[in-house]
Specification:
heterodimer, A: 348 residues, OB fold (Dihydrolipoamide Acetyltransferase, E2P), 5-stranded antiparallel β-sheet, 8 helices, 19 strands, elongated, binds magnesium ion
Chain lengths: 348, 306
């Protein structure tokens, strides 16, 4: 089975006079895993709830495949949702939690039993079906929530920050399981998060929102390699991309104090972006001074000050130890430099 | 810091004993008095601490010679109606208030609160008029719309609809049940439930009504039971309104019947031992209920999901 594509056309949402989503047009590919990413309060949940039917659109259309759904009740859209705080029914056993949708839909008891067993099996919940949610761990509860969502075999699966209540290790495990589950059932998955690592690892495509508008909608690697704006550049990647205020003088780009950064041809004021891992430490490059350095196990991060005082984050392979005040010199790798307009923040 | 916990314990214990004695004294006196015969009581010259042997005899007289047993049944029915109606209306009203957003919610909520501030005792006369003829609004309506005039032309005589609920269970119970105190309690409880619960139910295809029955009702069981007990006992001890609304002894609840026992013959000293036996007889059911349901009540009024 392949899930429906979701097409949104000029979708708006206002709460009173507060325009949260000021007109959004996008298509989410059928059967794809799409992550909606963005800072807190940017309207991710609102958008997801409108797709689910839990929130009405103020204007605009949403289509699942050919069908216009924006005026349909959630149950008539054929989508299911996993909530951040699980939202399991506390008084029902795990079996009844998973099977409630089927019961409401009037599925006969025997078939219900079978489908609940299958769904529980596929998220590794065997043997826990008779427990109450309060007798489960956080990870197990999240599995129940996922099983409850997939038991109806929805064509669209929605997730609103489902992993944010789990500890780091469990989160990693659940990420892998969700990817496998998605590949197996083939529903169109839309996953909301403000965690860029989740977005990068899970997504076929990432929709990056800011203030209710799409900033960039592309594959994770594209987002990382070719950020469309300085907002994307700083939002994706940890440590974040360096953004330096600089001036192009035709044959190269210099810092305001005259230090030559690169021989990339450009003319006029510019914001130069370079990822920390694309900066090499070399014997005779741009001179700077170590401000701070930390070791992260797999690599170290050095914060260094350029001659004009701007700071530079440098990721180096482990073993390189710098003490504050120590001088070093660096070079920006060829092809890794991204130039942005300092006014609009847009990519040149 | 090390507290002198033994000293504190002893003081607390003493306070507790005094409190218990204070609360139990009337009951003990009631029991003692109920054990006297009328002659013993009169010769003792009033209420004292004498123990007699006529307790069972007094109880037998209550059961066989007074209307209290039948009125006890009236009390049970009326209290069940009061508690049932109160809980059902408060539950559904709170459901609507909490889970449906509307601009008018605060007005509805304020009106709901207003009913708490207008106790039945203040409105006895108006309430009596309404219960004496619940068809009154219909008559008004016919008057206003001109239908009454039309009917008079056709039939030739003026017709007034009459339907009195005086002396009926529902007529006694309904006005007592029109107060919304439980809305506060349920509202707090509903607000403490996870916000995504109704959304999850909506995603599962449950209608709001289905959500109320399948999910909200089972979750609210403890506060429901606690408030039900509360209103049951509240209905049991109502005096003024049942006295007004139920004129015949057959329809009166036990508390009213008990009061009537006291003033049968004006020139005689009242049979206080019999009265005390009656009082114990009438309060037996609420006391047992509280005893049995004590933990449920405390848990239910704790206002949160277990
Ligand atoms: N019911 C509502 N009434 C009024 N404003 C709302 C309502 N729900 C959300 N908003 C506003 O809409 C904006 C977007 O909210 P939304 O919940 O979609 O953000 P989000 O991107 O999911 O954030 P987070 O990552 O914190 O969950 C916020 O500014 C919020 O204050
Ligand atoms: Mg959110």
């Amino acid at each position: 089975m392949t899930g429906n594509a979701i097409a949104m056309e000029d979708v708006r949402k206002a709460y009173g006079g507060n325009l949260v989503i000021p007109g959004l047009t996008a298509e989410i590919g059928g059967g794809q895993f799409t992550v909606i990413l963005g800072p807190s309060g940017c309207g991710k949940s609102t958008l997801l709830n409108m797709i689910a039917g839990l929130e009405r659109v103020t204007s605009g259309t949403i289509r699942f495949g050919r069908r216009e759904v924006q005026d349909l009740a959630p149950k008539d859209r054929g989508c299911a949702m996993v909530f951040q705080n699980y939202a399991l029914y506390p008084h029902m056993s795990v079996r009844n939690n998973i099977g409630y949708a089927l019961k409401v839909a009037g599925v006969p008891k025997e078939e219900r039993r079978k489908r609940v067993d299958t769904a529980a099996e596929s998220v590794g919940l065997r043997g826990l079906l008779d427990r109450r949610p309060s007798e489960l761990s956080g990870g197990q509860r999240q599995r129940v929530a996922v099983a409850r969502a997939i038991v109806r075999e929805p064509s669209v699966l929605l997730f609103d920050e489902p992993l944010s209540n789990l500890d780091a290790k469990l989160r990693h495990g659940m990420r892998m399981e969700l990817t496998r589950l998605h590949d197996r059932i083939g529903a169109t998955s839309v996953f909301v998060t403000h965690d860029q690592v989740e977005a990068m690892t899970l997504a076929d495509k990432v929709m990056l929102l800011n203030n209710g508008e799409i900033v960039q909608y592309a594959a994770p690697s594209e987002l990382y390699e070719n950020p469309a704006t300085t907002f994307v550049a700083t939002f994706i990647g940890a440590p974040a991309m360096n953004l330096l205020a600089a001036d192009g003088e035709g044959a190269g780009i210099r810092l305001p104090d005259g230090t030559l950064l690169t021989k990339t041809p450009f003319r006029g004021p510019v914001t130069l972006g370079i990822r920390p891992e694309n900066i090499e430490i070399v014997p005779d490059g741009i001179p700077c001074r170590t401000v701070y350095s930390e070791s992260l196990g797999s690599h170290s991060v050095i914060v260094a000050a350029l001659p004009d005082g701007q700071e530079l984050r440098i990721a180096t392979p482990l073993g390189r130890r710098m003490t504050p005040g120590e001088a070093l010199s660096v070079r920006f790798m060829k092809g890794a430099i991204r130039l942005f307009d300092p006014e609009s923040g847009k990519r040149h | 810091m090390v507290e002198d916990t033994r000293g504190i314990d002893r003081t607390a214990f003493a306070i507790l004993i005094i409190g218990v004695a204070f609360i139990l004294a009337p009951i003990v006196i009631a029991f003692l008095t109920a054990s006297l015969s009328y002659e013993e009581f009169v010769s003792a010259g009033g209420i004292g601490l004498n123990v007699g042997s006529s307790f069972l005899d007094n109880m037998r007289r209550i059961v066989t010679e007074t209307q209290l047993p039948g009125q006890l049944w009236n009390s049970i029915v009326i209290s069940l109606l009061v508690a049932g109606i109160k809980c059902a209306f408060a539950f559904t009203a709170t459901f609507a208030l909490v889970f449906y957003e509307s601009r008018w919610n605060w007005i509805i909520f304020s009106l709901t609160i207003a009913t708490v501030m207008l106790p039945l005792e203040l409105l006895v006369i108006t309430t009596y008029q309404i219960v004496a003829n619940v068809a009154m609004p219909l008559n008004w309506l016919m008057q206003i719309t001109g239908l009454a005039w039309l009917a008079e032309e056709v039939v030739g005589a003026r017709h007034e609809f009459r339907l009195s609920l005086l002396d009926t269970y529902i007529g006694v119970a309904l006005p007592i049940a029109t107060s919304s105190t439980s809305v506060f309690i349920y509202r707090q409880f509903f607000l403490s439930l996870p916000k995504d619960l109704p959304r999850a139910a909506a995603m599962d295809g449950a209608s709001p009504f289905r959500f109320m029955i399948d999910i909200l009702l089972p979750l609210s069981w403890t506060p429901l039971v606690a408030t039900f007990m509360f209103w049951f006992i509240g209905g049991w001890t109502q005096y003024l309104w049942p006295l007004v609304a139920a004129a015949t002894p057959d329809a009166q609840p036990a508390v009213v019947g008990l009061a009537k026992l006291a003033n049968t013959e004006p020139d005689r000293i009242p049979d206080v031992p019999l009265l005390m036996a009656g009082a114990l007889f009438v309060s037996f059911i609420p006391v047992v209920l509280i005893g049995v349901m004590q933990r449920q009540i405390v848990r239910g009024l704790n206002l949160s999901e277990k």
